[in-house]
Amino acid sequence: MKRVYNFSAGPSMLPQTVLERAAAEMLDYKGTGQSVMEMSHRSKAYKPIIEETEALIRELMGIPDNYKVLFLQGGASLQFAMIPMNLKKKGKIAIVDTGVWSDKAIKEAKKWMQVDVIASSKDTAYDRIPKVEKVSGDYDYVHITLNNTIVGTAWETLPDTGDIPLVADASSNILCGPLDVSKFGIIYAGAQKNLAPAGVTLVIIRDDLIREDLPAEVPTMLRFATHAAEGSMYNTPPCYSIYMMGLVLQWVKDLGGAEGIGRLNREKAAVLYDYLDSSGYFRATAQKGSRSLMNIPFLTAVSDPEKAEAINKKFVAEAEKAGLVNLAGHRLVGGMRASIYNAMPKEGVEALVAFMKKFEAENK
Ligand SMILES: *Cc1c(COP(=O)(O)O)cnc(C)c1O
Fold first, then answer.
1. 194 C-beta closer than 6 A to ligand 1
2. Could you tell me the residue ranges of all domains in the chain?
3. Ligand 1 in contact with 145 (CB < 6 A)?
4. For 282, phi and psi rounded to 5 degrees?
5. Could you identify the atom of ligand 1 that is nearest to the CA of residue 75?
6. Which pLDDT belongs to residue 10?
7. Percent of the chain residues past pLDDT 70, beyond the cut
8. What is the arithmetic mean of pLDDT over 70-91?
9. Which of 12, 73, 77 to mutate to test the pocket of ligand 1 (most atoms within 8 A of CB)?
């Protein structure tokens, strides 16, 4: 068996020990004679699975008691619509534009209310997080994208939104390290990058934002109140993905929880950034002070666009032969991108840097 180092932006790697445990439990989960995939979500065997997954996420993220943890479907993309539908009161929100994903959040929110883009880094191709200090105004909430998967930027200091709820898309950096949940009204994340296989969307929402008094036309399934009242079991939840999330969370706990995984992620990212900053042949695209620990886009120093394109293709193809896969950059940034989520071992990043050094020497 040969496993590769998968640098995909998502879905992405899962810890090998988690996959091994899932494989061992596949045919007969704890003596039930069934796979978790085959169980009723209302069975005695399944109930502890969802409960333990929730308990672990609460413990690892330090989620206060006045927040609900919901396991939904539809991805982060559905949250772009569901959040405005559920939080609309005054009819106006503020969004910080940090690239493609915040742009999608803006588009959906605009179907429901007035959207003020209060800051943007579009002028420098989204290579940084714009400065936002104090936000005030008549806003139902302020929305930010905590980690920008495509351009490789992340918020280091959160904006001060006072009493206005701060809503964050954390799809690509959920549980990448410690985070003060009490600073947020809602944190949401498609789980397929850092927590689980695709299919489950994690929503952490403060109780006062779960409203019953919504316009009648808001569908039952798109109300947070529906899912909160039923413990994410109003309808069939994504049972197997929730089970897998539980295994991943146990793995994070064994690594020292949010602190432990945060330390490891900083070390991993430093291995790659330090090389990119010293290479002269490759360079990181994101500005210092805004750099993501999870997604690291980089370019070569070749200035002729056609030559650069050929070099990029060669890099991606040769890397794949070396067992380092999915390194092609997003078309908006070009070049390459290494996504090094929680499950990417440090050895994988070191193998990438060793490959880059060799490539640099051969192609300079
Ligand atoms: C991947 C991603 C999304 C989309 O998530 P889906 O679960 O596929 O809808 C949204 N926001 C960010 C920041 C992402 O990285």
1. no
2. 16-254, 258-363
3. yes
4. -110, 155
5. 7
6. 96
7. 100
8. 98
9. 77
Q: Whose CA is nearest to atom 5 of ligand 1?
A: 76
Please tell me the distance between residue 78's alpha carbon and the centre of ligand 1 in angstroms: 10
The model's pLDDT over 177-207, given as tens digits with 9 standing for 90+, comes to 999 999 999 999 999 999 999 999 999 999 9
- pLDDT for res 282: 97
The predicted model scores a pTM of: 0.98
Contacts within 8 Å (CB) and 24+ apart, 250-255? 250/56, 251/15, 251/17, 251/18, 252/60, 252/175, 252/342, 253/56, 253/59, 253/60
Q: What is each CA distance from 260 to 39, 153, 178, in whole angstroms?
A: 33, 22, 9
Q: How confident is the model at residue 1 (pLDDT cuts 50, 70, 90)?
A: confident
Report the CATH number of the 16-254 domain: 3.40.640.10
The topology under which CATH files domain 258-363 is Aspartate Aminotransferase, domain 1 (3.90.1150)
Residue 78 · residue 127 · CB < 8 Å: no
- Cα–Cα distance for residue pair 94/343, rounded to 1 Å: 33
Which residue in this structure is represented by tokens 């008094």? 213
pLDDT of res. 364: 85
